[in-house]
Amino acid sequence: MNGRSGVIVVGSVHTDLIATADAMPTPGSSVLGTRFTLAPGGKAGNQAAQLARLGVPTVLISRIGTDSLGDVIAAQLAGTGIDLTYLARSTLDPTGASTVFAVSGEYASIIVPGAAAGLTDADLDAAESAFRASRFALAQLELGPDLAHAALSRARTSGSTTVLNASPIHGADPDVLAQVLDVTDVLVVNRHEAAILFHAPMTDRQAIAAAASMLNDRFDLKATIITCGSEGAVLVRGDAVIELPAWPIDVVDTVGAGDAFLGGLVAAWYGGSDDRAALRFAAAAGALAASGSGAFTSLPNRPAVEAFLQSCG
Ligand code: RIB
């Protein structure tokens, strides 16, 4: 593998404040909740934590504040074994937060990125040696497509396989998004994001596979994976289409399930799995995350994923 090792993850880390209830509050109303979880969150933090829990050497590039919430995040992420050399502490801005309403397996959130919004090229420059050493690089759109582009173009130049989780896609400038896709090897999106990207509804498996194939052709991607929640996932690489049904689980909440899927997918490829095995492993990690409460708090370790896969046959 050219002496390369490990995975680099660039993006947001913040505090998740997750309130679970039986109904979503509507404007002007309040509902009584049943559970509250406060934990590290943010897609980059979650994906890095998932990789590390699966035993993959992982470097996280992000920013948090010097406040007490930042201290809690730094301690909890360190506990997973992530290399936090490039988790900068900003003295100017507070640690960001995501207020999440989780109801019946769905969730809605308001994200205030705080210090993470100050992540710039200078932070990427500081991590140049990590970019040169990594085998995979992951970015998301939580801090906007410009940062994802800066991270993945740098990773591509340095020879890593680049993975874009195009989430959240709402509001992303389509021109910049196209530039990000131009430096992406593997695209992972959910079916709602794929519909926005593809400008057409993802009505059935055939439409989903066709959309993935056209995205591969248009942006010269090596593979596209479209996740469909309780209906599984589809991976398209060249002429190969792999469809996976979802695992049967009791959903507690889906916060972080997509991040567990991303971490599981890259961890499996990192370990040498082929696409079908990697998709199975990723879906199992996502299912386990959805069967627990919160994001960071429900990311499974490798023995849990392997036991789950064995129990599913
Ligand atoms: O993907 C889940 C994450 O999205 C949560 O941790 C929340 O922070 C939001 O950023």
Write a compact overview of the structure shown:
By secondary structure, the chain is of the alpha/beta class. It has eleven helices and 13 strands. The strands form two sheets. It has a nine-stranded mixed β-sheet with strand order 5-4-1-8-9-10-11-12-13, sandwiched between helices. Strands 3-2-6-7 form a four-stranded mixed β-sheet.
Topology:
Elements: E1 7-10, E2 14-21, E3 33-41, H1 43-53, E4 58-65, H2 68-80, E5 87-90, E6 95-103, E7 106-114, H3 121-126, H4 128-133, E8 136-140, H5 145-157, E9 161-165, H6 174-182, E10 186-190, H7 191-198, H8 205-219, E11 223-227, E12 233-237, E13 240-244, H9 257-270, H10 275-290, H11 302-312
Parallel strand pairs: 1-4, 1-8, 2-6, 4-5, 8-9, 9-10, 10-11
Antiparallel strand pairs: 2-3, 6-7, 11-12, 12-13
This protein binds alpha-D-ribofuranose (RIB).
Structural notes for this entry:
It is a single chain. Helices cover 39% and strands 26% of the residues. The protein has helices at 43-53, 68-80, 121-126, 128-133, 145-157, 174-182, 191-198, 205-219, 257-270, 275-290, 302-312, and strands at residues 7-10, 14-21, 33-41, 58-65, 87-90, 95-103, 106-114, 136-140, 161-165, 186-190, 223-227, 233-237, 240-244. It is built from 11 helices and 13 strands. Strands 5-4-1-8-9-10-11-12-13 form a 9-stranded mixed sheet, sandwiched between helices. It has a 4-stranded mixed sheet with strand order 3-2-6-7. β6 (95-103) and β7 (106-114) form a beta hairpin. α5 (145-157) runs parallel beside α6 and α9 (257-270) packs antiparallel against α10. Residues 14, 16, 41-43, 46, 98, 100, 109, 111, 142, 255-256, 258-259, 295 line the site of alpha-D-ribofuranose.
